[in-house]
Design goal:
The chain has 296 residues and is α+β, with helices and mostly antiparallel strands. The protein contains nine helices and ten strands. Helix 1 packs antiparallel against helix 2 and helix 2 packs antiparallel against helix 6.
Length: 296
């Protein structure tokens, strides 16, 4: 009987142990499932936010509106108190607020947007990431305390194409310890932001170049007419063309007049054009060029 009792106890212990292990396994599986689900949700949110940012690369809205959208997406995703894009002027020790995004209930620290005394921590050539555990004892601790900052990320943009822009993300409501994924995400958004700024800069430079070129071509004492070979769209006419052939441009017969003088293959060269309506001969030079917008 004693042997049977011991065997029964052993058997019972095995059953209890298997049940405990089974429960532990189930708990671990549930935890893994919950963790995987949480990670999947976080990944989904990150991808959606980044997709929204990338789509703004080709947005044709006003420049500042696009920048404001980018930092709003970034600030909302990171759940920070505020996000600002500054342009700093280290020589004058001043800064301008280009755009600012504020979490609901957050009050701006700025009562103006231009010629504000520059924050020293913004004058950096490399990213600055500080959580609540690092701010205390930092060189700019006093500034952080005055501004109510409890966590901050600062990303300088390329000064060659942005003129000294700096992105600043601030946490004011609670202690903040930045996660590596958050820093990576912010860095990726900064790259897209820099591309947006660079594209607008190039576009502005191109427009300025076009305006300068237009001024020069308007001063030339001959008619200049530029047309897209593929679409037929008129890309440019200088002042003399508009003056001498205003009615032809208006009624769309200008191209017919030019086509009548050129050979079918339209090779580069010099041609003579007899304009029957005016009873006059015109000398014409024709050549293929790549226009400022890349069209032939």
């Amino acid at each position: 009987h004693v042997y049977d009792s011991i065997e029964m106890l052993n058997h019972t212990s095995e059953i209890i142990m298997r049940n405990k292990l089974s429960c532990m396994g189930a708990e671990a599986e549930a935890y893994r499932h919950h963790t995987n689900e949480t990670e999947m949700q976080a990944t989904k949110a990150r991808i959606e936010a980044m997709t929204q940012v990338v789509e703004l690369l080709d947005d044709e809205e006003a420049y500042e509106d696009v920048l404001r959208k980018v930092i709003a997406i970034l600030g909302t995703y990171l759940s920070v108190s505020s996000a600002q894009l500054f342009r700093i002027n280290p020589e004058k020790q001043t800064m301008d607020v280009i755009v600012e995004w504020l979490e609901q209930g957050t009050i701006s620290n700025f009562d103006k947007t231009q010629n504000i005394p520059m924050y020293g921590f913004l004058n950096t050539d490399s990213p600055l990431v500080m959580g609540s555990d690092v701010i205390q004892g930092h060189l700019d601790e006093h500034s952080f305390r005055v501004l109510g900052i409890r966590g901050i990320m600062v990303f300088p943009l390329d000064r060659r194409t942005t003129g000294g822009m700096v992105l600043c993300l601030c946490e004011q409501d609670r202690p903040r310890l930045w996660q590596m994924e958050e820093v990576r995400f912010a860095s990726d958004v900064v790259r897209v932001l820099q591309s947006i700024v660079a594209r607008r800069y190039q576009k502005t430079s191109l427009m300025n170049s076009y305006t300068s070129m237009e001024t020069v071509l308007d001063s030339i004492s001959c008619c200049i007419y530029v047309r897209d070979l593929e679409s037929g769209q008129v890309l440019f006419t200088n002042r003399m063309t508009k003056t001498q052939f205003s009615s032809e441009l208006r009624d769309g017969t200008m191209q017919q007049l030019l086509d009548s003088a050129m050979m079918l293959e339209r090779r580069d060269g010099a041609y003579e054009v007899f304009y029957e309506d005016r009873g006059r001969w015109y000398d014409m030079m024709y050549t293929r060029i790549n226009w400022v917008n890349g069209r032939l």
